[in-house]
Design a protein that fits this description.
The protein has helices spanning 2-28, 45-61, 95-99, 170-183, 193-202, 214-226, 258-266; strands at residues 34-36, 42-44, 66-69, 85-93, 106-113, 116-124, 129-134, 138-141, 144-145, 158-160, 186-188, 207-210, 230-233, 250-253. With 269 residues, it is α+β, with helices and mostly antiparallel strands.
């Protein structure tokens, strides 16, 4: 499986770079249409083009593999959905940033086999960075190996977080922000969680916590763990979704602060 993981990582990197190049071209040519999904979430034509590019690449190269994409997911997620080889993709993480010409957006792709994530890549074209992780093989940014920032005190940490698209859930996020802002050195909200989690891997952030989906944490979570980060959850993990792909109440942090951060957030439940 390890040899396969190296091959999958190369393939994932190629896919996200190809999709990234295309969505940049679309924006330069002013050919991006913006519509609304449920709960106030934007989707652009670039999301769908990126999804199509990645999906076609997988079907052509690995026709026997399954695909779980943010833009084409249907129905509820159950544990049967994660059996066998499965590509988990986010064609455009940070859609609002992309539509407003903010540079913090990314394309993410990872592969899991029977619920275990083996390889993944996150490409942020406007930032000029590509993060790649291989299970047991380390994490890299533009070819340079990554390592989390050693930190032992939450009060000295910079922590990333985010807000839900569903405005009815914003008050819970604001309570989390209040806790973080009063117990950490500072917080960051870049509105592209795949990048935030990769920033934990590279030491730009000491932790990231937010309620996310499998496609947000699949590739970036692997990259962070391979760089030495610890992944945990504020609440219980659903029996239907693998722990490595469960994003609800996720905490990804430098080892020295993960327990302190989890304790802080759990006291707010």
């Amino acid at each position: 499986m390890k040899e396969d993981a190296q091959e999958w990582a190369i393939f994932a990197e190629k896919m996200v770079r190809l999709a990234g190049k295309k969505i940049i071209e679309l924006r330069k040519e002013s050919r991006v249409e913006v519509t609304m999904k449920s709960a106030g979430e934007l989707v652009t034509s670039a999301d769908l083009v990126s999804d199509h590019i990645i999906r076609d690449s997988i079907v052509t190269t690995y026709p026997e593999h399954g695909i779980l994409s943010e833009e084409t997911v249907g129905g509820s997620l159950t544990k049967d959905r994660f059996k066998g080889p499965l590509w988990i993709i986010d064609p455009l993480d940070g859609t609002v940033n992309y539509s407003r010409n903010f540079p913090h957006f990314a394309i993410s792709a990872a592969i899991a086999v029977d619920s275990v994530v083996w390889a993944g890549a996150v490409h942020a074209p406007d930032l000029g960075v590509t993060y790649v992780g291989v299970r047991g093989g380390g994490a890299f940014c533009n070819g340079e190996q990554l390592q989390v920032q050693p930190v032992n005190t939450l009060s000295e940490s910079v922590v990333g977080t985010g807000f839900p698209h569903d405005k009815s859930k914003v008050h819970l996020a604001l309570e989390r922000v209040n806790l973080l802002a009063t117990h950490c050195r500072d917080i960051r909200r870049l509105a592209a969680p795949a990048i935030d989690i990769c920033y934990v891997a590279s030491g730009r952030l000491d932790a990231h916590t937010e309620s996310l989906a499998p496609w947000d944490v699949a590739a970036a979570g692997l990259i962070a763990r391979e760089a030495g980060a610890i992944m945990g959850h504020v609440g219980e993990v659903s029996a239907e979704i693998p722990v490595e792909l469960y994003g609800e109440g996720v905490v990804i942090a430098s080892p020295g602060i993960v327990e302190e951060l989890l304790s802080l957030l759990r006291n707010d439940l």
